[in-house]
WD repeat-containing protein 55 homolog (Anopheles melas), 924 residues
Amino acid sequence: MNSSHLFQPNRALGYVSNHIPPNVRYIDQRRENVVITCVGRSFHVYGCNSFRLIRTGRIHPANITAIAADGFLTYVAAGNLIYGWRSSVELRKVYRGHEKPVCLLLPFAKHLISVDESSLLKIWIVSTQELYLEIPFAAHTFEISAIVHPASYKNKILLGSAQGGLQLWNLKSCKLVHKFTDFDSKVMQLEQAPALDVIAVGLHSGRIVLLNIQYDQPVIEVHQDWGPVTAISFRTDGTAIMASGSSNGQVVFWDLEEKTIVSTLMAHDDSVTGLHFLPNEPLLVTSSPDNSLKMWIFDLSDGGARLLRFREGHAAPPTCIRYHGASGRNIVSAGEDSSLRIFSTVAETLNCSLGKASYNRKASKKQKKKSEDPFRMPPISYFTSEVTRDKEWDSIAALHQGLVQVTTWSYDKRRMGDLHLVPEAFQNKQHKKDFSVMATCLCLSHCGNFVVIGYTSGHVERFNVQSGIHRASYGAPTAHNDYIRGLSSDNLNQLVVSGAADGLLKFWSFKQPYTTVVKTPIETLDLGDPITLIRTHRESAILCVALDDFTLRLVDLDTRVIVRRFNGHRGTITDACFSPDSRWLITTAQDCVVKVWDIPSSYLIDHFRVSHMCTSLTMSPTGDFLATAHVDYRGINLWANKSLFTNVTLRGLKPESDAPLLDLPTALCDEQQDGIGFPLYNTKQMEVDELENVFEEINLEYNSPPQLSSELITMSNVAASRWQNLLNLDIIKKRNRPRQVLKKPKSAPFFLPTVAGLDFEFDLQATIGDKTSTAGGKIAEGGSRIIESNQVDHLTPFGRLLNAALTTEEYGKAIDHLMKLGPSMIDYEIRNLTPFNSGSGSLPVMGAFMHMIVYMLGQRKEFELAQSYLSLFLKVHGRTIVENEQLSKLLPAIEDAQKAEWSALEDKLLYGLGVVSNLRNFSG
């Protein structure tokens, strides 16, 4: 079984972009520009109006290497295959033929141009997926590095090479049109300028040349001092401005008329790989491998740009994640980029950043190059938070890799606090950043007033979070003889529990009267092996202790005894958490396995394996999601708890058994959560190669037979609104009658034929000599339009079908006709079965209706329709049936059929009610 009993992949948070340049296109139906960014093996689509995630692509079998789009399809290169997507989720085309990974894509009218790493250029016919043309290039002499289609140059493309050369090719004739003068550096970018015949050439040396390709002459040549040219774009809103991106995150704006730098912008912490001016708007979209996408608007007085909208995540993988608050909607995450972020599980627009850890926040803000900030602190390795004092002061305490300082953060104010907590004995103001003692673990008290910190020296210290004043020390001279691995406190601030590498678990009184030193512990437990970490469920007073021998111990804080032992991991345990009701303990280790332990039964009830080691995990306070962070992944993965929405049968598993391998979740947007594109596969992530076969399966819809078995009573698939209110139709019509009196239509002479309908029109096609009649009668022989009364047939279409069934005894057509009608027409048809002018012409038809009801009940099909039709028939024609002897003789047959079918249904209903009642009484 390749699935988990309790968890299934739900979605991923925190992915925005990577090093692949994004694509910007205009969508007519949405009336907005969209940005398509790459996030590894999938891609995201953001709307520029609000930067909301509107689409997420499917999982590809390999990492995406290039993205392009035209007016119909989005082309994605993954490995040596090219996929054409419609609406980001419908796979329409697959182009096969490359033997090397594809690195460049260019839509070209009805064709698609692709270039792989071996400089093999292929041209595909988009509609038929056939190869139109293939041009091989020698990589050692002309390695293609950039490609562009010059405006107004029919059937021609311009190629740039890593050797610095440029070539213009005619694709229709497959000939080299012109070879330009080589540059002295690698061609990084080719971009069409607003002026015809002019192409901007960005080089690895930082030089930008605006080349007139018609005369092979440079028009303008500039040089940026911030590294290679990684992106180029032009404003098209009437301002002669060119923007160029560099490898250090700098964007330079050039005035092409004055040939000078207008301004510079430090846009990203990493190289600028995406740079696009929106058509005819003063808006610039930039992206970077730092996992961010930003939009800048040019509305400052000096013509500079300011940040308008942005989406960003961690630039490096998260190190620690924790749910914050009781709602389960926000996850606080610390990353290797020294930042602390809040991710919303409800909407991506609610994500925010608390900033990056800094020794001096004010000095860091003044730094122009954020990537080279000398005041930046090392990444946060662990943090803890409490919601009790969120509004009053800092509610998050964090420790950093290799530092003795502990920083505080304000969740409410969304920023880093001013406190750097260091014990007085360890303070060395001259060399504070280079200190031999390091903080290794910490915990916040439940009241949010105190933070307890453990150090590699064995010290355990307590500080006040509001003021940063040192309040107490545990142990004399130290709490342990080895470095501290875990700390915890109870709900009432009565105990502090410390665990160290010496294998001892010590229980301390939280505070000692008349002294700031708690010298001796209340009790000590020797666990025999060094302690790896400690996690606590305060409401149930359970302490989880992980040991270096890959085992787990559960300790009761009240009795201070070991109550459970779990073993089964094959690597060092990296994190653990409890479910909200404290029934489950969820652990993960370096063996890449996540295990779920049932605490009451002491059994392993679920486990699954992932491709990359899980570094941190946390369970939602509402129990609906498990969040995990993994090595080399910059996002947070959410796993849905299946026990909340389906019946899950739990059984004990062998701890040493192999766990099934699960794929990590991918990002989803609101529109795709409704199953757009793949209604049968919207809850299951699948590979792209599987999707090619899925389309055929989706078209083969299963059609259920009208009746599974003649022994079963089958209900109708007709909407309830067509039959449920037949008995009360007169009341409904009276309630819904119009307030204004309806105007009578103009009357026409009886000899002028009219067309039936809402509009008053004459039937111009009718002729005096026409012998046909629309009322069932015949025209008199003399050509007169007057219908003879003795030839009038007053039966409705339904009545005629019943009349025909008198001889054939086939009531299927009459039943189908009645099922197609609405409530008003059904009422009309049944009422018109009454005898005409007190005659007996319709009595056989009424008898046929009664036979039809017996037939429907005998077939056990359309059960509720037969009941509804019979009720209306008896209500309307009850007196006529009683007064007529022929019709009265049919009533016993209807009664017997009704009794037989209802008895079978009633027995099943009463049996089910009896079982449910018995179970309810038994459980009570």
